[in-house]
Structures are given as C-alpha cells and as structure tokens.
Amino acid sequence: MVVKNALFLLLFFRITILNAQNLNASDLIEKWDRNDVYQTIEAEKTYSDLKSNYDPLKFQQNVSGIKEHLKKEPNPRLEVRLNMYEILNSIQFEKKISSKTEKDIADLFQKAILINDEQILSEIYSIYVENGNATFEDNLFYITKTVEIQEKIGTAYFPKFYLRLFFASLVYYNLSMYNESIYYSKKSLKHLGKAENNLSSYVWNKDLLGASYYRLNKIDSGMYHYQNIYDVLLDYNAHFKNYKEGFENYDSPFFNIWLGISQGGIGKGLVLQGKYDEAIPYLEYNLKQSQSHHEPNDVAKVQNLLAEVYQNQNLPEKAFQFRWAALKNAKIRNTLKEAIIASKGLENMYKSSNQFDSAYFYNELSHTFEKELFQTINHSKFLSVTNRLQHEKMQNAISKAEKKISEQKLARNLILIFSIVSLGLVLLFYQRYRDQQKNKLDKINHKKNVAEKGLQESQETLKEAKDQLQIFKKSLKQNNKLIESLKNNSEKAKPNYSELQSCTILTKEDWIHFRKQFDKVYPNYLYSLREAFPQFSQAEIRYLCLVKLNLRQSEIASALGISDSSVRVTWHRMRKKLDVENPINPYEFLSEFEQNHQLNL
C-alpha cells in the first residue's frame, strides 16, 4: 500500500519535465530574476538542468558566480532562488534529509515572506512538505496553503501542481480523513492526465484511492484502483519507452515493488470479501517483493493480512507467526495503524488459547499505540488551525511592517533631499577651495619643473666634463705611447718631430681648460687641496690632479713634459713638504686626504 517511504518521495520529487542544456550563472540569473506568473516554469527548467546534467565543478562555479553578482547588486529574490537551488542539490545527493537541510528550508520562509511574493513562497512550502521530516500538522498547513496559492494564481503556471495535490491527499490519509484524501487524489490524477506523463504519480494516487476506499469499506472501488495499477504496470512493461518516468528499462525496483503492491491490494480486497484461498497467492507475491526490497511498512501490512487469512482458516500457528512478524516490522518505521492491528490480533489469539497474561499485555500495547495515534491526529488537526492563525498574524505583521517601511521611505526621501541641497552647497565651497589649492599647486609644480630642468642641465654639464676628462686621459695615453715608440726607434730612423708636435702636450691654455672640466667633475677638490696644503706649488697641484685621474707615472711625465725621474723627484719633494717619514705613494695620499675631508667622489 500507501506510500510513506522517504526514498520514493525523493525519487518522486526529482522527476523532471524536460531535458535542458547545461546552464551557466548568467542563464540562472536571467531565469530567476523575474516576478511574473511564469517564474516557476523558468525555475523548474533550472532545477531540471541541475538534476539531468549535474557537474560538481560547474555547480560550484555557478553558485560562486551568482554570489559575486549579489555582492555587487543585492537582490533578495535572486538570493532566495539561489538558496533553493543549493537545497535541491543537497536533497538530490542525501539518502536521508539532514537536519541542516531541513533547517535551511525553514529559514527560507522568512526571506520569501519579505519579498512579498506568494508564488515563490508556495514553492518553498512544497519543498518543505515533500522533502522534510515535518509533523502532520505542519504538512497539512503548508500543503494546503500551497494548493490555495497555486490555484489562485493559476495551475497552468505550475508544472508539478499534480504533485502538490498528491501530497495533500497523503497528508489527509495519514490523518484518517479518507474522503478528503480521495478528493485530492482524484484531482491530482485529473491534472496529471495519462499515466505515461508520470507513472510514479499515477500509481501512488491510485494506491491512496484504493487504500482510502478500503478504509471506508468500499471494497469494489478499492479493488478497481489496485487493478488499475496492475494493468498500467503491464502496459509499462511492454511499452516503457513511451513513458516519461526516465527508467532505463522495465526491470527496475520501482516496477517490481509496485507490481507486488498492486497484487497485495487486490489480495486485501479478496480478504475483505472472505475469499481467503484466492487472496493467498496475491499476498505472498506482495510479501516476497516487499521483503526483497526492504520495505518494512508494506511487509507489516501484508503479514497482518496473511495472519487474518490463516486465522480464518483455523491455522493458528501460522497466524501467530505472521502477527508477531507484522508487529516487529511495524515498529521499525513506527507504523501505528499496522502495529495496532497486529497487537489486537495477538491479544485475540492469546485469549482464545486462555493465555490471559499475554492477552492483557498485548491489549495494553494496542491501547498505547491507539492513544499515540489519536493524540497525533487530533494534535495535528489542532495545530493546523493554530498554524493558520499564526500565519494570518504573520501576514498582518508584514502589512504593518510594509506601512512602517513606506513611512520610513518618505522620511528618508525628505532627509535625502535636504542632504543633497546641503551637499551641493558644500561642493560649491569645496570647488572654490580646490581651485585655490590648484593654483598654489600649479605654482609649486612650475618651480619644481624649473628646478628639475636646472638639475638636468647640471647633470648634462657634469657628463660633458667627464667625457672631456676621458678624452684628455686617452690623449695622454696616446702621447705616451708615441713618445715610447719614438724612443725605441730613435736609433733606426730619424724621429718624426712633426707628429710629436701635433700631439697635445699640456700648455697653459690646456691646463686652464683641464681645470675647468676637473672642477665640474670634482667640485671643490682643487680648492680643498689648496686649503689643506698651501705649501704645494701650482705645478705640484697639477701633478696631484693627474694622479687623481689614475694616470701612470710615465703618462704623468708625458702630460707635464718632463722625464719619469723628474716625476719621482716631484713626489719626493712634496713628501718633504709634508714632513712624512713613512713611505707613501701619491694615490694613498689622495685617498687619505679625501677620507679626512669627507669628499664623497
């Protein structure tokens, strides 16, 4: 019978209405950022794409992309849709709905209410009912509100409206309100159309109809609907490719389980008619399928029926075994109705065998189950009404909040206008102040440019002076080489004095030019030498300048137009003037001089 297995509910929820292409973040934003009546249809396309073409990397990229978009452009509607998208992805891969996912669904209520959009709120209600572990009262309230809202907007805009009606029927059945359950199941089948459109929805609605009619003791009607399930499954077996369910072939757990349930449903009708021998093959087939697929709820129901059959056939041992097994399986999923039937059956059997202690035990046990079921159903009905009142209070609170927000917006606008005027005045005065500061800055920049230009010219002059010194050094080296060459060849050929004369030997004019370039490269160097050593002659100062240029002794002799020995005599004479006893060369002398006078060269 009646579907209560969470695995089936998840499978049912995941059924898609189309095969979509993989959607990127921009596609999702486009489909979600709308508030017209077609928003649910567009949203269903994105959820179908998630189910049919799931890619973990693509999913994370889409979620990250939309979150980045929300940082730049906050959008409550888009945020709610993204949360729904993430929740449905979690549901798709969780074997059992986690408490975190269920809490995430409940938290969406408040966000959706603030959007003030009943359509998107109804979608969240349906997710909560169809995938959560809510109490009967919550399910009844939220599924009823979902149906009301979606019928008011128009069922054509909700591709899975038949699913909402099925869950309404299921909730009413669990509350023992069988006429209401029949009403919603018939309505669901009408919106669904042919069984080929969704086989799961068709057989589940038929199961609810058959079970409800049996509860109302309308046996023929109950058997009719279970026979419908059997017939459509045989057609599915032969033509499964015509069905939109999405199974790869007919040999699926779904097919085998429901083939057994349909047989069990027919078998129950035969039991109610007293046709026990005819009922046994149907019930045994149902039991075999349900046991092989680990469905303890359905196993408990079939075992209770077989116990009744064998009890009526005066086979108490078999009846006892099935009653006891039924009670055990009913406890696994806390199926109270089957637990009550099994415990009462055991009570009657023990009474008939005069085992009154055991009979009393199972009598107490059945009363415990009945009390729990009664409290659950009546508490659920009471809380359903309470929830409706709370919902109305919440809507009133929202209306008051919206009115207050409107008043706050008016006050905000007035403040905004005043702020804009004040800001305009501030900007006017600020512009004047900025213009004044700009003029000052322009003057500073002009002075800076002049200074930079002067610095550039100084750097160019310094470079030119260095270049001149390098030319001078090169010239001296060439002169020195020429003199050496002339000395070596003096015995072989007559010296070419004209060539020697063409090479520049330092004249007075040369030294004046040299001093100018030297001062540019080494500012204050000559001045510091004269100040530090006034005892040196002009010629000796010139000698030290050439040493500063790192010229060899022969090159200095060539530059000064004297012999190498004269150069040595010059430095010897200078050492006496300095009164230096320790031997020191001119290069060391200049290095010590620069260090003592802190000349950074």
Automatic annotation (TrEMBL):
Key words of the record: Coiled coil, Membrane, Signal, Transmembrane, Transmembrane helix
Cleavable signal peptide: 1-20
Keyword set includes Coiled coil: yes
Protein name: HTH luxR-type domain-containing protein
Residue ranges crossing the lipid bilayer per the database entry: 410-430
Coiled coil: 448-489
GO molecular function: DNA binding
Biological processes, Gene Ontology terms: regulation of DNA-templated transcription
SUPFAM superfamilies recorded: C-terminal effector domain of the bipartite response regulators (SSF46894), TPR-like (SSF48452)
Source lineage: Bacteria, Pseudomonadati, Bacteroidota, Flavobacteriia, Flavobacteriales
Keyword Coiled coil: yes
